[in-house]
Design a protein that fits this description.
rod-shaped; 2 domains; 76% helix
């Protein structure tokens, strides 16, 4: 959940610029010169690819490793998305359960008219919170 709200997306132009700098440096000084540049790379996936290049792996091997890594990342993200979808499905139902609890409280105190309003407010607010959490937070993420 933290990654959904607080992760920053790397700028495409920044990554392209880094690739240009890395290719110039590797052409001039050799591929091993990129080892000092790894600290500047913020993207873990890109770091891994450059490290594999520095280690001297064949391009096809690097491609296979990074494609496997991409598949694992996609699977992990699908699992996270499924969790949010499930939360979004159940949240309105939980709001309705809260509504029932509020209505039971209201019916228990029917002899005192001053408690009907607050109990009804709790009943309606739980429905509202369930819908907001389910549709606006979970399903839009």
């Amino acid at each position: 959940m933290k990654n959904v709200f607080f992760s920053k997306v790397a700028s495409t132009t920044t990554i392209i610029k880094q690739f240009g700098e890395f290719s110039n440096k590797a052409r001039r000084e050799g591929i091993l010169a990129l080892e000092g540049e790894l600290a500047k790379v913020e993207e873990e996936f890109l770091q891994k690819g450059i490290q594999l290049s520095i280690d001297g792996l064949e391009p096809n091997s690097i491609r296979e490793i990074l494609e496997t890594e991409t598949t694992y990342i996609q699977d992990r993200h699908k699992l996270g998305a499924e969790i949010f979808t499930t939360l979004g499905t159940f949240a309105p139902a939980l709001g309705m359960i809260g509504t029932l609890i509020g209505l039971v409280q209201m019916l228990q105190t029917m002899d005192d008219p001053s408690t009907i309003g607050p109990s009804m407010a709790v009943a309606l607010l739980t429905t509202f919170y369930g819908l907001v959490f389910g549709f606006l937070i979970c399903n839009l993420v």
